[in-house]
Amino acid sequence: MDKGMSKSSKKGVILGQGGELHQQTVNTEETLTTQQGVPVADDQNSLRAGPRGPTLLEDQVMREKIFHFDHERIPERVVHARGYGAHGYFETYESLTDLTCADIFQRKGERTPVFVRFSTVAGNKGSADLPRDVRGFAVKFYTKEGNWDLVGNNIPVFFIQDAIKFPDLVHAAKQEPDRGFPQAQTAHDNFWDFISLTPESMNMIMWTMSDRAIPRSFRFMEGFGVHTFRFVNGGGKSTFVKFHWKPKQGLQSVVWNEALKINGADPDFHRRDLWDAITMGDYPEWELGLQVFDEIFAEKFDFDVLDATKIIPEEEIPVKVVGRLVLDRVVDNFFAETEQVAFCTQNIVPGIDHSDDPLLQGRNFSYLDTQLKRLGSPNFTHIPVNAPKCPMHHFQQDGHMAMHNPKGRANYEPNSWGKEGGPRENPVKGFISYGASVNGPKTRARSETFADHYSQARQFYISQTPIEQKHIGDALMFELSKVEREEIRERVVSHLLNIDDELAKRVARGLGLDKLPKPADAAKPTQKNLPASDKLSIIKNGPKNFKGRKIGILMTDGAAADIFSEVEKVAKSEGALVEVVAPQIGGVKNSKGKKISAGQKIDGGPSVLYDAVVILTSKEGAANLAGFPPAKDFVSDAFAHCKFIGFVEDAKMLLEAAGIAEKVDEGCVLIEDTKSANNFIKRCREVRFWEREKNFS
Ligand code: HEM
User: Fold this and answer.
1) How far, in Å, is the centroid of ligand 1 from the Cα of 79?
2) Cβ contact 671:554 at 8 Å
């Protein structure tokens, strides 16, 4: 023990003479060292000339520590900066030899390790999880023949058709450059100015204004490869393919007012949800689906399959399910894995190839280029999360932070070093690009087959349920109400007139436009005969049960013990979680005097954090909470967000104070016994009681 230090009652804990705490190794703890491995005796005090004197430059321990800290940050991704990753595996359901020689699709039942990163697009790294935004859905498959990255989104189309417009799109969407805000939202002039001058974005705008852009969780959203890719089989035959991820948990989104509140209550809502589900063993799963088609279909399809602003409706080409993705392991270290992972559309494997989609072609350049800047060296493939799990042999060498360097004398080929000469080409297994014929004059021209900007936007809109259509209108009104320049608002409405008259009129009314503008000049008239596609609606593809969802039970002292155990029991048998929200974090004593611990204190656990709620108070508890705004909001928000609400007779006073006692509807279930608790859970399977929203003005 140093001079001036005194022992505390805890073994290995010493107080310094300035009162600072020193935790020292006793038995099994490892010794703290510098990066050079030198043991450190005192991590609380820098080296000084006397206890009150200046710190000495000589202090290599402090300098090393601060030097490293000073360089902890790397540039965030230029887009998709905020994300969350997890490990898992992909399991192949059947051999697809006839379609592709990609090794991952050859053997039924084979499991391939994967790393997945979900993200928002526009917000900075520290933004919240629930802005209205596209979500990234990037999957790295560590196949036996190299890494295949399927870098997709939760929306199957994109804003632009040509990668040359990507910098403009992203500049317009992110914070405005003079003021540095608003961040993580598109509700501002620059974004809508750009969009209103870019009619090819209209299909994507319908999707981003829909509830797809405010998913309940990463677990409850679809993923799409977006572009048309190619499969190539062992005989060199190619077919076109589009990739889909279908969540086994079913689709689910939140409502906009809820999203706004979640961002405040828990900005990490989505990452926490994924972390919790995986650590509790409720592994999320998606099935990989393919839409496979040939040149003949591509020729006769109304739209160009190389145009990333278009889908192929599932009714035209059904999605064939070929495998499942299971996420079963959280990261050990967020920075090492989620931050350093580098997905790249150019990472494809034998049997998979690019198409001529001009957006995809530009992406193939952009990702590698940006990652060199972001990760600081061409050796980012040496970082474990990026390194293939199959053998690698090449002559690439040196560079910053080179971790794996080839051995031996030969670092070039051809060479004449025989066995020691290193790896050789393999024309049998090696990647061979599909030999598509390419010709045509060099030109900066866009194909006329890309010119229909409205027909599929309309098709998406008419495929939605009335509630979903209403949400699209509401979202447009919200976003445009934040736009300061009226001519931009008008220009957007002029595009909506080419999509759906009623939608355009409703938005115009909502914005208070004095008169309707003329419809925008359309390069091609809208085809109004495209049929509705049920697969495009979230509500029509919702969950079949309440598994993986969370019920918030607002409880007070004296709450009925039997009802609590009933709700807990039925929720458990459904695979749903319950969390108690109480006036104090210490929990409550139920009617039998048993202590029930709380997951949240009422003002930290608003109902927006739950998929359904139960108001389980005693009479006295309800009376106390009736005067407490966070408790009233808990109930009234759950009602306004169309959630199923279970309640007990004793909670009536709180319901009254929240203003819903008179409005109790079929989405509010009185829980008195096993039967009604079961009934409540059954209702919850519909996720929301949308009927209620019809009564909101
Ligand atoms: C179909 C259209 C697109 C989709 C589905 C898409 C998807 C994604 C996803 C999921 C990420 C995040 C990857 C991660 O989690 O690390 C990402 C990042 C990125 N995307 Fe895209 N993107 C699209 C279009 C584009 C285009 C056209 C460009 C550029 C020409 C581009 C450039 C980038 C860049 C530079 C990053 C950051 C990559 C990094 O720093 O690692 N994207 N994109």
Assistant:
1) 7
2) no
Report which of 395, 402, 363 is spatially closest to residue 380, judged by C-alpha positions.
Answer: 402
Structure confidence by residue, pLDDT tens digits, 486-518: 999 999 999 999 999 999 999 999 999 999 999
* 166 CA from centroid of ligand 1 (Å): 10
Is 367 labelled as part of a ligand binding site? yes
The answer, yes or no, to whether residue 24 has pLDDT greater than 60, is: yes
Q: Is the pLDDT of residue 407 over 90?
A: no
The predicted model scores a pTM of 0.97
Do 120 and 155 meet the contact criterion of CB atoms below 8 Å apart? no
ipTM: 0.96
Q: What is the pLDDT of residue 587?
A: 97
With CA atoms as reference, report the closest residue to 473 among 138, 682, 211, 96. 211
Q: Which of 637-646 are b and which e, b meaning 16 or more Cβ less than 10 Å from the residue's Cβ?
A: bbbbbbbbbb
Arithmetic mean of pLDDT over the chain: 97
- Minimum CA distance residue for ligand 1 atom 26: 363
Q: Which of 22, 87, 147, 153 does the annotation list as catalytic?
A: 153
For residue 360, the CA-to-ligand 1 centroid distance in Å is 10
Q: All domains of the chain, ordered by start, with CATH?
A: 1-72 (4.10.91.20), 83-161+214-382 (2.40.180.10), 548-695 (3.40.50.880)
Residue whose CA is at the smallest distance from ligand 1 atom 23 = 363
Is residue 153 annotated as a catalytic residue, yes or no?
Answer: yes
Token duo for residue 622 = 């309800």
Atom number in ligand 1 closest to CA 369: 35
> Is residue 80 among the annotated active site residues?
yes
Ligand 1 atom 6: residue of nearest CA = 152
